[in-house]
Specification:
Blueprint: H1 2-13, H2 28-61, H3 64-88, H4 91-125, E1 129-131, E2 137-139
Antiparallel strand pairs: 1-2
Keywords: Coiled coil
């Protein structure tokens, strides 16, 4: 019977700690509201940024000296790109380009597989830290993005 009193005392002495910040537990409605507010704010910033970039670009285009030099650069770039295309069409470069593209694709597949394994590791181990064979400590970082849904 004495143990039940100790248990009550332990509970009464316990301290409730509430999480704060973006990881605190919020209701679905609160999260949706916050996300929608951020979407609106980000859209406003993007629009403002577009306007400022347009003004920035127009300032250069309206300068006569810059405009003239830019035309010369475009002509030189046409000649340079022609030479680049000629070099890329050689059999050796076509083979090398194919090998590079194949390895990029292979690396992307490996990264996708690694992502799945890291997710499983995190769930099984309960930690987001892993030590590599050569002793490096790495952190598993989940990436979340919001993209427009294609209809």
């Amino acid at each position: 019977m004495d143990t039940s009193k100790n248990q009550k005392n332990n509970v009464e002495d316990a301290e409730i700690v509430e999480q704060s910040g973006p990881t605190s537990s919020l209701s679905l409605i609160e999260l949706t509201t916050i996300i929608n507010r951020y979407i609106g704010d980000m859209d406003k910033v993007k629009n403002t940024l577009k306007e400022k970039n347009s003004i920035f670009k127009d300032t250069f285009e309206n300068d006569a000296e810059y405009h003239e030099l830019n035309l010369k650069v475009k002509e030189i770039n046409k000649v340079k790109n022609g030479a680049k295309q000629r070099i890329l069409k050689t059999p050796a470069m076509e083979a090398l380009t194919a090998q590079i593209n194949e390895q990029k694709s292979e690396l992307k597949d490996m990264q996708d597989m690694m992502s799945g394994y890291l997710e499983q590791y995190q769930k099984v181990s309960g930690t987001n830290i892993i030590e590599t064979e050569n002793g490096d400590i790495r952190e598993i970082v989940p990436v979340y993005r919001l993209v427009k849904r294609k209809i």
